[in-house]
Amino acid sequence: MNERFSTIESQMKMMMSHQSQSQPNNATQPEVQSGNGVEGQSGNRVEAQSGNGVEAQSGTRVEAQLGNGVEAQSRTRVEAQLGNGLEIHQSTNSKDEPCRLIIESSLETVAKGYIVHTGDDKIHCDDIRDNLRVRITEVIVGDADLPKAISDEVVKVKDAINTFVPWPSHLVLRGFEDDVSQVLHLEEISAAVISLYMRGLYETLLKMRIAQYVSFMEASQFAPSIGKTNNIVERARLLAERLNLVEKGMFLLTPYNLGRHWMVIIIYAHSQDAYFFDPVGNHPKEDVVSVVKSAFDLYNARNNNLRRKVQGVTWYTVQGPKQPDDKVCGFYIMRLMRDLTMSNDPRDYLEKHCYGQKTYSMDEINEVREEWVSYLTEYMP
Predict the structure, then answer these.
(1) Domain that holds residue 187
(2) Is the four-CA dihedral 92, 93, 97, 102 of positive or negative sign?
(3) Residues 293 and 343 in one domain
(4) Which pLDDT score, from 0 to 100, does residue 200 have?
(5) Could you tell me if 196 and 156 lie in one domain?
(6) So what's the pLDDT on residue 262?
(7) Which domain-ending residue is among 174, 192, 222?
(8) Disulfide: which of 64, 118, 152, 364 matches 38 by Cβ 3.0-4.6 Å?
(9) Which residues, 6 or more positions from 241, have their beta carbon under 8 angstroms from its beta carbon?
(10) 162: left (phi > 0), else alpha (psi -120 to 50), else beta?
(11) According to the model, what pLDDT value does residue 124 have?
C-alpha cells in the first residue's frame, strides 16, 4: 500500500510544489493560476522545469504541460484539461470561486459553477440568508430540484444554466488546493475533505449493492464549530429531518467537530441507538447528547412514537482504534466509516471488532488517502 500511495503522492507533490515554485519576478508581471495548482507568468518568456516534465511558457498566453496530459491555458480564463476528460474552468474575476453544487438527500454533485461575490444580500429580490450566490455553468443532473426555485419556470438544475441562484452554503464545495495539501501532509483535514470522501464512499457502496443500509449527513449540518449554526434547536431540526428519510434497518453517519477535533456519530433511527466514536476514546459530549435527544423528540412526535419518546436514546461509546497524534483524527473517522459500511454486520463491528484494534496502521490510513485522491480526480470541478 505504501508503494501504491507513493505514486499518487508524488503526483500530488508535483502539483503543489509547482504552484509554490512559480513566483513573479517583479510587480508588473501578471500571474495566472489554474484550478489544479499549475502556474505560469507572462513577461518575455518564463519556463519552469520539474522532475516529471512540467513546463510552463508564456508569450501571448500561458501553457503548462504535465506528463499526464494536463494543460493550462490563459486568455480570458484558465482551462485545465485532464487525460480522463475532466475540465476545470476558473473565471478571470478573482472574486469568483469555482465550485461544485451538491444536494442534501444523496450528496450527489448536480452542477458546477462559480460562487459570485457581489456584496448584494439579495437574489431575484429574495434574501440570500444561509445561501451563497452561485452561477451554474455546467449541468450534471438536470432533473434535480433546485434547493430554492427561482420562479415557476426555474425549478430544476437544467433550468438555471448561466443563471444566478441561491444555494445552501453547506452544499457548496469549493476548490481543493488546500484539501490536497492536508491529505498529502497528513494534516488536520477540513469538512470538505470528509464530505468528498463520504460522497466517494457512497458511490463505492452503490457499486457493491450495499448502499441501502447507510445514509450520510454533512458535518456542516450538525457540528457547531464548522456548521452554519450553533443553535441546538436548529441543528436538532435538521437532524430530525434527516432521520425521517432513513428507512428501517438503515443507519445514519454524521461527522462531528468540536474545537478542531473530528468524531463521528452512528445512529439507528428506528431503535434509537446512537454510537459515538472519538479517536481518543472519550464518551459522548454534552452538546451531542442534547442535539440527538432533541432531534428524536421531534422525530418521535412526528411519527407518534410515544413509547420511544419515553424510552429515550441509548448511547454506546465505541472504543475503537486510538489516534497516535493530534492531527489524524479526520483520517481515523474516515477509516472507521469505510470499515463500518463495508462490514457484514455493522452493529457487530461497532460492538466487538473495534474493541480489538488499538490503532490503525499506516497502510490502512494510506488506503483512505489513496481512495480520497481517486475520488478527487473523479469529482473535482
Answers:
(1) 179-372
(2) negative
(3) yes
(4) 93
(5) no
(6) 95
(7) 174
(8) 64
(9) none
(10) left
(11) 60
Contacts of 360 (CB under 8 A, 6+ apart): 321, 331, 332, 335
Q: Which CATH number do you get for residue 279?
A: 3.40.395.10
- Predicted confidence at residue 24, as pLDDT, reads 35
Whole-structure pTM over 0.85, yes or no? Answer: no
The three grid cell numbers given for residue 303, joined into one nine-digit string = 411519527
Residues 284 and 366 in one domain: yes
Read off the C-alpha cell for 88. 476545470
Same domain, 268 and 140: no
Three-state helix/strand/coil letters over the chain:
CHHHHHHHHHHHHHHHHHHHHCCCCCCCCCEEECCCCCEEECCCCCCCECCCCCEEEECCCEEEECCCCCEEEECCEEEEECCCCCEEEEECCCCCEEEEEECCCCCCEEEEEEECCCCCCEECCEECCCEEEEEEEEECCCCCECCCCCCCCCCEHHHHCCCEEEEEHHHEECCCHHHHHHHHCCCCCCHHHHHHHHHHHHHHHHHHCCHHHEEECCHHHCCCCCCCCCCHHHHHHHHHHHHCCCCCCCEEEEEEECCCCEEEEEEECCCCEEEEECCCCCCCCHHHHHHHHHHHHHHHHHCCCHHHHHHCCEEEEECCCCCCCCCCHHHHHHHHHHHHHHCCCHHHHHHHHHHHCCCCCHHHHHHHHHHHHHHHHHHCC
What are the strands of the beta sheet with 109-115, ordered from one edge? 164-168, 131-139, 109-115, 97-102, 172-173
Q: Do 205 and 307 have their domain in common?
A: yes
Domain end (from 136, 152, 174): 174
Contact assessment for residue 53 and residue 79, using Cβ atoms and an 8 Å cutoff = no
What is the rounded CA–CA span in Å between residue 67 and residue 83?
Answer: 10
The answer on 183 and 167 residing in a single domain is: no
Chunked mean pLDDT (size 10), the chain, 381 residues: 56 49 35 33 34 33 28 28 28 64 82 80 65 88 89 90 86 78 90 89 94 88 70 90 90 90 94 94 93 93 76 90 93 96 90 80 96 84 50
> In this structure, are 368 and 332 located in the same domain?
yes
